[in-house]
User: Fold this.
Amino acid sequence: MSDQPQALWLAAQQTLRGMLKTELYNLWFAPVTARCLEGDTLTLEVADEFCEFWLKDNYLDVLRSVVSRVAIRPIQVTFAIRAADASSSASAPAEPVAETAPEAKPSKAETRIADAAVQSAAREASRRSEALFNPNNTFETFVVGSNNHHAHAACMGVAQKPGHTYNPLFLFGGVGLGKTHLLQAIGHHVLANKKNARIGYLSCERFTNEFIEALQNSQLPKFRKKHRELDVLLIDDIQFLQGKERIQEEFFHTFNALHDAHKQIVLTCDRPANEIQGLEQRLISRFEWGMTADLKAPDVETRLAILNKKAAALSVNLPEQVILFLANRIRTNIRRLEGALVRVAAYAQISGKALDLETVETLLREILQEEGKVAISVGEIQKRVADYFDIRLADMTSKRRPENIAFPRQIAMYLARQLTEHSLSAIGESFGGRDHGTVLHACRQVRDRMEVEAKVRQDVGYLEKQLTR
Ligand code: ADP
Ligand code: MG
Assistant:
């Protein structure tokens, strides 16, 4: 058995991240590392005694249960305090001490106190950065490939000279392609170089919630001051402004105030600004004032580079063919690629067995299914179903209604619903402009008939397997 349980702990961290509020996770759980796994006891390393007490008091049961679930056997959790280094010395006083009179020459003791205060301020800055951002989301851990080099370069430019290069910077791209990672990398970089920088990092949802709260408590001026006096404003997932007029109005003024003062604004979005429905034109045009950069799905070289970098960080040595398998099968989402690697690595470390592809496939069944969902198009489904029932492809979109055509068409709608992430109305659209009610009805119809007719069950089951292979 390996005594290097990094992958086990990383898999547990992924679960914890999904369970806990981001700030809570970033502050308390992200900085924790795994020291060793001896028998059934996992030792976690924390920064100081305070962290240990706090985690023990509040989260020991949760930690035990999450780690046990990942390891697929009961695991106990203990803590150890990380060896002190300059930036996190446990012996320095926790709080800065009162200021000395300006003209008085500081005594030795006072110098020591002042040093401690400087150290403490540095600690405070790194704490602040940890509290705001996931420590893993830095430029150092970001793999640059042809899919993202443009966005990466723009973010580096902004991080080095906030407010002076591209303003605003608008990043867009699909889920799991590194938008939040780059946004936070900018934040880390700015804070590391200028620890007093006032950085606002908010999801668009949080901006909305804070605004509503301020409105209810008559604290709008305070809300405005807080956001308009920042040096850098990082806003994630701006697509949530969609259709929210009051928030857009408020955001418009925040944007202008910061932009006029040459303060940096960085926005991320899951699509180009002009595709956000119900977004005011004046905002769209402002978002396009500076630089727009998109993140695409990584090509196979980039996927391999990401896998190798993460495997090295986890200190796991996976067979070449396993890495290739992952890179070939998971193409559309880097978060999913990472999740797959962590799961496989955790299994390899815990079981101590050599991995074959069959095991990998079993371990990743759900992840591969999810990946399959995105990859299948409605067109492909229609074609397969038409071939299988020996009808014309054109009948998938036609208005013809004989049972031998209408039912296969319903099956294709049902499969489109099951196997893709398209909405009911988008699916209806692909079937000759039918409405969402028709698709819903088709899905019910197929489900009902599957329950009572073995033949329908077989047909649908067979097609589903063919399509998700
Ligand atoms: P998004 O915000 O676009 O949905 P994230 O920034 O959260 O995606 O990225 C998803 C995961 O993939 C994160 O864990 C992130 O660290 C990782 N990731 C994305 N792009 C890269 C990259 N180029 N190099 C290394 N890790 C990456
Ligand atoms: Mg994101």
